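Methods — Computational structure assignment.
A single polypeptide chain was analysed. Its primary sequence is given first, followed by the predicted tertiary structure written as structure tokens.
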Amino acid sequence: MFVLNNARGLLSRTAAKVQLLNAPVGVKLLPGIRTMSIPGTVRNLPPAQGLYNPDQERDNCGVGMIANLKKSESHRIVKNALQVLERMAHRGGCGCEVNTGDGSGVMFTIPDNYFRVVMADQGVTLPPKGEYGTGLVFFPQDKEKQAKIKAVFDKFCESKGFDIVAWRDVPTDNSTLGPSSLACEPKMEQVFVKSKKPMDPKIFETELMILRRQFEREVKGDAEGAQPIDDTDFYPCTLSSRTIVYKGMLTPEQVREYFSDLSDERFETYLALVHSRFSTNTFPSWGRAQPMRMLCHNGEINTLKGNKNWMWARQSNIESPQLGHEMTQQMLPVIDKSQSDSGSYDNVLEFLYHGSDRSLAECMLMMIPEPWQNDGSMSDKHKSFYKYYSNVMEPWDGPAMIAFTNGDVIGATLDRNGLRPSRYYITDTDGSGKPEEVLLSSEVGCLQEVVEVDSIIERGRLRPGQIFMVDLVNGTLIRDKELKDQIAATAPFEDWAGRMIPVSDVIAKSKKISDEERLIRASNRLLTAHGYTTEAIDTIVTPMGAYGKEALGSMGNDAPLACLSLKPRLLYEYFKQLFAQVTNPPIDPIRESMVMSLRLPLGPEGNLLDKDGNHARRIDLDCPLLSLDEMYAIKNMDTDGYKTA
């Protein structure tokens, strides 16, 4: 019996019991509890029951980041990263077994020298640095399935113009793992691939991403007409020429012990992201451990259901101007249904970055904008940038600190409320007074002994809506304002945002409501404003006026739920407010006007991957609740390309 130890979540220890198909010796199986497999890497999750629903998987965790601005590779960064991770053990979760964790992992730039040596021991010569892609792949333990999965990878490598250089068994030590983690431990192998023709580095990364995505979809059965080979244990961690991820259903302390590579002094890097997972109201798995492909996430996305639905809805209207129709289709669907909120966010970030000509930082600001609508101190250029992108896609909102990287840049950003901590140190170890390393973490104590006090030249924290980035190509730090100035200058966002059509212009150019209809509607409006419902008028007021009788009734509301009612009900009665699982961000646009606005665009969306001014040709509404004049004007408009009359 596995019991989720989730003191901060809503699941009780008894409500979160799970029956394991591969139950360890001595584990009793509960009668009447069914098991299920959800497409992806999650084995044996229970069906939706009580307060648990597998669709509501969330992460709430600890994040750390180390980067050397001079790109000076060393094993010291690996050791320091692992120490930061181990210091965040309290930020992660574990089951009833102290040696079964919710998930932990690390991301590094590819240690080319180390891999070149270990592969030479196998008689394999790797291509030059940057000309091969590599990554860890989680396989099921079934050897027949392993062979089928590799055959799928062979097929897509051939069709995409890649050669498989070699497969390597990843050396691991599972002697410290708990029974629940052992029960679903995958077989780990590392793959090396190279292109058959020379490619630009960014195009090479994109091609590797598409190869991995096609491979993943086919094996899981997500591709059209595909039968799943394995939809529980299989998971390709990364396939990249720049970064590599080591992760699993481990505690922070087990990462160093489990992956033998990380203890080898020859394993050197200049960048590290670490993550300790607390799976809020969810169940741990090997594939949902972080880092993901481009980020680590501390927090949760409260708007997840809407974000995922919008991404599904707009897929029919997406095409990358850089990649063309065929390659765009190879990247769809954008979101892997088996992933958590962090994994879904990573899917979309990866898609935006590789599918458009936007920078990684621009994609981050596009998805997690700062509160711009009512900020009187924000520059017009920054406001225009955010206003334009409010027409392109909705924000992924919720308490979040996200550290991100593509191997060339690394950075972090906070949500609009700043509901997650994020502190950083900038150090100089050679006495020059110039920044040499940047360390960032969600916990201050994680950096003790990792940072020498005398070497610190700056310390600080991210504030709500701020972003912080290190350009590793040029060896520079880019602060919040400087970075946003750079991005705002990449396109005429002020001109584009000016194309939005104020609803007042629609009213001025549209047919006006008649005085007679206005009077009728105004009367109904007054009744509504004073709390009179149709039921009150029909059953109480009308009998009193017509017959001089007062209606009889009882206190309370015994009306059935709309979904169970046999009588017609209004549409909005079928919906109830959905609350966040951990932290409720402000939802009051009056008292929290600095961080929340009800403004929204109205009209058809454009191509998500296309960066042009036509996205902003939409109607600018101050509020989703329309006045009488606004509703009538929109119902009868014929202006600026919009016609409803």
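Note: Residues 201-220 form the longest helix (20 residues).
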